[in-house]
Amino acid sequence: MDGVLAIGTRLPLKPGPATMPRVAAIEPTDEDLLARVADGDREAFGDLYTRYARAVLGLAMRRLGDRGRAEDAAQEAFASVWRAARTYRRDRGPVAPWLYAVARNAIADRGRARVELPAEPVDTASDEPGPPEHAEQSWLAWRVHRALETLPEKEREVVELAYWRGLSQSEISDHLGIPLGTVKTRTRSGLRRLADDLGDELG
Amino acid sequence: MTTPPTPPDFHELVGDEGTPEELAKLRRAHDLLIAAGPPPELSPRLAEPPRTR
Which residues in B have their CB inside 8 Å of a CB on A? Predict the structure, then answer.
């Protein structure tokens, strides 16, 4: 995935100056945000976008294969979310699968509009996963990427450096200028939070 | 497509402290991260949500 190359642009090259720890604010739930989006709240739409943009783009890239088309599809997916927000019913389940379905449909529409063959041909004999496996993998990636966005920044940072940049714990310590023990603590804490958030997927 | 980096070694990452249940929980999160692969980074074009009416 060519976006991997750009991960460094999101991560600080050096730690910032020490600051007073922020008091953790109570984050609105996805359901709260979507309810506000349904009322035309663009700020809530922006917050929801921040939470899901990478997951939506990842889904689009997996389905379409081409970065440019995937970016178009991701934008269309969020435009669909804006338009469809009023159709969401909280009593029918959480936002994540609803938003996944809306995004998947928008991406499929974009895929059907293509002249070329789709990026994920599924009717040829091969060892590649078929449609159910693709769907399962797409949903898994969606949930994991969404869960990553919920981690405290300092924990997400070390997890992404370890998993997506391939840095060892010592290298992360050097990279961020923090003690090795802190790296290990943040890593464990981040994994624990992910496990809690992804409980349904862990079965 | 860029080949993702080699996944980190679980034991190097978290050590062996903790109950078996705790380690199993961390292990499952570790496995899910590897299975999911890295999310794409957003280009400047996608830095903001699309304009809506």
Answer: 1-2, 4-8, 12-15, 22, 25-26, 28-30, 32-43, 45-46, 48-50, 52
